[in-house]
Amino acid sequence: MIGLNRRRVMGNKKGLLPSGYTQLDYIENRYRAYIDTGVRPTATTDIDFTFSCLWKPTSDSFICGCQQYGYKPYNAYIFVNCNAAMQTFRYNVHSKSILNTNIPVDTNVHTVKVRTATGIYIFDDNQFVLYDSFVYNDAIGNIVLFGLNENPKVQPVKANYPAYIKVYGCSIMNNDGMLYRHFIPCISPNNVVGMYDTVEGVFYSSPNGAAFIAGPKI
Description:
The chain contains no helices and 18 strands. The chain is mostly beta strands. The N terminus is likely disordered.
């Protein structure tokens, strides 16, 4: 669940990590690693997310999100995924509301900003309207990074449709700018690669034991 400790949005400045942690430019997923953020999104949950794909996907891959599929109403919060058939980035609000950006999948660095309450989706310098009229139902599962937390009602948190990407940073916040999570790629004092949340003061590694690959040290 969302923690009570919330702070205003901040950047990935050096010096935000505790002693013993080594800040990285990014962490990379090649082995189905993922991050369970512990945040269940609502109609006012926003996200900023910077990533790059390692290669063009041969199957659908979800960069981050959660979905209660097969239940009504369809409660979901899927930020962006790579559609293998069309080779484009797209955004899902739920299974019946899909925004195809028509932006080709590539290996460049991209920044996604989702503003759920106002229905705005920003992909780099491109702005899209997510939906004209949609009654958002609070999702029942946690947001997962590097994959999709699918069917959280009937199974523990896991990452389906893994995305093989580099993640440079991620902030999850309320639409008033108060932070729930601010993730910085890093290496822990125990030499584990993952992300440190500066809001709650917690280090996150992959729950399934899969290893992230460290990017360059900052």
